[in-house]
Amino acid sequence: MKKSIKDLTSLQGKTVLVRVDFNVPLKNGEIRDDNRIVQALPTIKHLIENKARVVLFSHLGKINHKNPEQAELDKQKNNMAPVAKRLSELLDLDVIYVPSTRSEELTNTVKNLKDGDVLLMQNTRYEKGEQKNDSELAAYWASLCDVYVMDAFGSAHRAHASTYGVPEILNKEGKETAIGLLVEKEIKSLERCVNPDERPYVAVLGGLKVSDKIKVIEALIKKTDKIIISGAMAYTFFKALGYETGTSPVELDQVDFAKRCLEEGKGKIVLPVDVVVTNAFDNPTEERTVKVNAVPEGFMGMDIGPETRELFKKELQGAKIVFWNGPAGVFEKDQYSKGTIAVCEAITGLKDAFTVIGGGDSAAAAAQFGYKDKFSHVSTGGGASLEMIENDGHLPGIDIISSN
Ligand code: ADP
Ligand code: MG
Fold first, then answer.
1. pLDDT value at residue 202
2. pLDDT (tens digit per residue) in 284-327
3. Phi (first) and psi of residue 297, to 5 degrees
4. Which of 61, 144, 299, 375 could potentially form a cystine with 246 if both were Cys, beta carbons 3.0 to 4.6 Å apart?
5. 207 CA: nearest ligand 1 atom
6. Mean pLDDT within 366-391
7. Residue 258 phi/psi, 5° resolution?
8. Contact 326, 213 (CB under 8 A)
9. What element of type H or E holds 214?
10. Rounded Cα distance, 145 and 212, in Å
11. Residue 3 phi/psi, 5° resolution?
12. Which domains does the chain have, with CATH numbers?
C-alpha cells in the first residue's frame, strides 16, 4: 500500500509540495471546465486543515521548446494565472501565485509561507527540462519542500521531473513522499479493473484509434470475460474479417493485429451487427443503416445501429465490473450520438455493478448526456487509466512514492 497523506501525522509547519493536475481546457485565457481543479480540492483542504504550507505545481497544455518563437506563444496561451484565480475562488482564500518555476522570488516566497498558506507556481512545462526529467530541475524543486505529495493522477504515467524526479530525490534524502486523496481514489477504483474481484468483467471499447489502444486491448483480452468493440475502431476489425468498409476509418497497418485479437479473444469479442453510415463526415446528403458486412462503397460508419444497441445491452446484462473507454460513434454530432447514449444507458442501468470510465472523450460524452454521476468512478486520467491496466496496476509516478 502506498503511503497516503492521511498517514502523514505531523504536517504543521512543513512545506508540502503537491503535484496536482491543473491541466484544464483554456480558451482565450478562460477556463472552460474547472473539474480538474475541483478534484484536487480534498487534498489541498486536508493539508490546510493540518496546517501545512502548501506549494502546488502542475503542467498546463503543451510548450514547443524546439521552436523558441512558438514556445513564447505557447507560454502566453498556457499561463497558470487564471488557474490561481479560480483556485482562490474555490478555496475561498488568497492563493499566492508565483509566475515563475525556478527563481529567487519563488525560493523566497516559499521560505516565507505561513502555516495554512497555499502557493501555486507557474506551469511546470515552462521548463525545458520538465518532460526530460532533468536532474538539476528536479533537485531545485525538491529543495523547496519537506514532503512531496503526488495527486496528479492524469500525469502519473509520465516520468517527468515533477512526477518522478522530485520524489526520487526526496526518497533518497529520507524525506516523506505520499499519494494524495484523488490518486488514492483512482487507484482503489482502477485496481478493480486491473484485478477484478468480481465477475463477469466486461470492457466496452470504442473511440478513434486501434493503434493508440493496442496494449490495452491485449491486456483486456486476458483480464476480461467479454470485450465489446464499437466506434471507429470497429472498422479495422471488420476489415480483418474481410468485410467491405467503404470509406470508414480503417487502420490498414492494424488489420493483422485485429486478426490476432479476434483469434486470441475468440468467444470474448463482441462486434456491432449494424451501423449507421453516411456519404460524408460533414454535411452528408445520404444516410443509411446497414448490416456491418454491407457498407456501400463511398459510405463511412458513424455510429452503431439499433440492433447493435440492443445487442450491447444484452451482452452487458449480469456484468459485475465494467470498464468503458471510447465512444460508440461520433457523439459530438447529435444524429450519431444514439450509440454512445445507449452504451451509457446500458452500463449505468446495471444492478450492483462497479462501473468505470477511463477516457477523456468518454467522460465528456457521459457528462454531456447526463450519465456521469451514475457511474461508480470517472477517472480523471484517460491515458493514465489505460496505462495502469496495460501495466498491471503500475504507473511510474505512483510506483516511486513510498509504501507503508
Ligand atoms: P477517449 O478519449 O474516451 O479515450 P477516443 O479519444 O479514443 O476516446 O475517441 C473519441 C473520438 O472517437 C470521438 O471524438 C468520436 O467522435 C470518435 N469516433 C467514435 N466513433 C467514430 C466513428 N465511427 N468515426 C469517426 N470517429 C469516431
Ligand atoms: Mg480522446
1. 98
2. 999 999 999 999 999 999 999 999 999 999 999 999 999 999 99
3. -55, 140
4. 299
5. 9
6. 96
7. -60, -40
8. yes
9. helix 210-223
10. 37
11. -65, 130
12. 5-181 (3.40.50.1260), 188-390 (3.40.50.1260)
Q: What count of other Cβ atoms lies within 10 Å of the Cβ of residue 110?
A: 20
| Residue whose cell numbers read 514532503 | 147
Q: What is the pLDDT of residue 9?
A: 87
Q: Which ligand 1 atom is at minimum distance from the Cα of 209?
A: 7
Q: In the block, which residue shows the cell 478493480?
A: 192
- With a CB cutoff of 8 Å and minimum separation 6, the contacts of 169 are 138, 139, 142
- The residues pairing with 184 across neighbouring beta strands, listed in sequence order, are none
Which of 28-37, 123-132, 246-255, 291-300 is the least confident region? 28-37
- The CA-based angle 20-25-29, given to 5 degrees, is 105
Q: What is the C-alpha to C-alpha distance for residues 166 and 240, in angstroms, rounded to an integer?
A: 46
Q: What is the DSSP letter of 63?
A: -
**Catalytic center residues:** 36, 209, 360, 383
Compute the mean pLDDT over every residue in the chain, rounded to the nearest whole number: 97
Residue 151: exposure state from Cβ atoms within 10 A (0-12, 13-18, ≥19):
buried
* Ligand 1, pocket residues at CB < 6 Å: 206-208, 231-232, 249, 301-302, 325-327, 329-332, 359-362, 382
